[in-house]
């Protein structure tokens, strides 16, 4: 399981900068998390201004 970024994402990039395993990149519509890399640390959820990353 991994964190997933929902459609509330405003593409600010804060989560990508703080991810320890560089699992987050800019996708077609908003930032996305590579589930094969995510270690579920929760850092992205902690820095996101709109609460878009959530554990699945
Ligand atoms: Fe990266 Fe941690 Fe967020 Fe997973 S939970 S995408 S490892 S910051
Ligand atoms: Fe999107 Fe939140 Fe990441 Fe910013 S911190 S790019 S709003 S998921």
Automatic annotation (TrEMBL):
| Metal-binding in keyword set | yes
Q: Which SUPFAM superfamilies match?
A: 4Fe-4S ferredoxins
Instruction: Give the function comment from the record.
Output: Ferredoxins are iron-sulfur proteins that transfer electrons in a wide variety of metabolic reactions.
Protein's organism: Lachnospira pectinoschiza
Q: Which Gene3D superfamilies match?
A: 3.30.70.20
What is the designated name of this protein? Ferredoxin
Q: Which UniProt keywords apply?
A: 4Fe-4S, Electron transport, Iron, Iron-sulfur, Metal-binding, Transport
Q: Name one GO molecular function term.
A: electron transfer activity
| Cofactor(s), by name | [4Fe-4S] cluster; [3Fe-4S] cluster
> Record's Pfam families?
Fer4_21
**Where's the 4Fe-4S ferredoxin-type domain?**
1-25, 29-56
């Amino acid at each position: 399981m991994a964190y997933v970024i929902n459609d509330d994402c405003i593409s600010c990039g804060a989560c990508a900068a703080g991810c320890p395993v560089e699992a987050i990149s800019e996708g077609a519509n908003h930032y996305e998390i590579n589930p094969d890399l995510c270690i579920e640390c929760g850092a992205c959820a902690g820095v996101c201004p709109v609460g878009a990353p959530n554990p699945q």
